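Recap from last week: sequence in, structure out.
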Amino acid sequence: MQAMRARRALIPGMLAIAVSVLAACGKDNKPPAAQTPEVRVVTLKDETVTLDSSLPGRTRAYRIAEVRPQVDGIILKRLFVEGSDVKQGQQLYQIDPATYEATAKSADASLESARLLSQRYGRLVNDEAVSKQQDAEAKAAYLQAQATADRAHINLRYTKVLSPISGRISRSLFTEGALVVNGQASALTTVQQIDPIYVDVTQPSSTLLRLRRELANGHLQAAGANAARVSLVLEDGSAYAESGRLEFSEVSVDQSTGSVTLRAVFPNPRHELLPGMFVHARLAEGVKTSAILAPQRGVTRDLKGQATALVVNGTNEVEQRILKTDRAFGDKWLVTDGLKAGDRIIVEGLQFVRPGAKVKATEATATAAVPASAPAAAATPAPASAPAAAKS
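Predicted structure tokens:
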């Protein structure tokens, strides 16, 4: 009993001690002072870049020849392998020559008879054994017989159907035993020259107007000797090894599409390009000086879909800028409005700051080198959490 009374007597004292200790701790543990957030920035500078346009197009054969018969007859032989390369003047078909051989022999005989008669009258007219009228008629008959013989031999040669150009031959639309006629609508086959090969691309007329305007006001400089050079990206995304040259641009605008056609010619020694293939051609637009390239990781979109960036001003406060972007250059955007040289754009720590906040800015580590040129791309960048890949 005495022990229990002793414990009860100790409890009030222990509670008083605990309260005093907690009160003392509360006085010493004041809230810590707010720390200035740290961010990493990239200081922008003027750069010189070459602008490219990536335009869709189709490959076209350099030359196309539709092979048609020039005489009537039955096809006796086909003398080529479909899909192979043929040479100019190579025989492709043999049309039955029998009737044309007979006609040529008859014409030759008539020619010889007319020649002998003309020679005879030529001697007799001097002796006045025949009249000059008869001599003239004999000479005219000889010339007519000669023309008839020439035509007969031409038709005989046409029974051998020859390739008009060198190139790759397509499938044959007629087989042995088929009757063909001179001037028929259907071609026997087609020969296409594909080395070199054309690439026809279309460009909006509005783009041409913009380029001319920028060149005129000095925002762009001419690309010089490289302006006519063209490179290709194939259907599978791979780059074509050979470079081409721009040949001409259409002189009128297609009213249905509002675009003009540009034609380039490419060497095709390995016949990798076939007529009708879909490709993308890159053409040099010009050289832009004083270009601003902003890292894509520092550019986001707001709720309105506008491209925005946070920059650190001279007093180390955060500012929000609304941007206009033109195209991607590797991991950077070409900015046409909203940023200037000397601006410090935040690329790390975006989630910890907001406009108006004071920050401690340090320069970010160097990124990979930016390519010297880039094609036209969509102007609206993706959010920083999922940056858009550079477009080719």
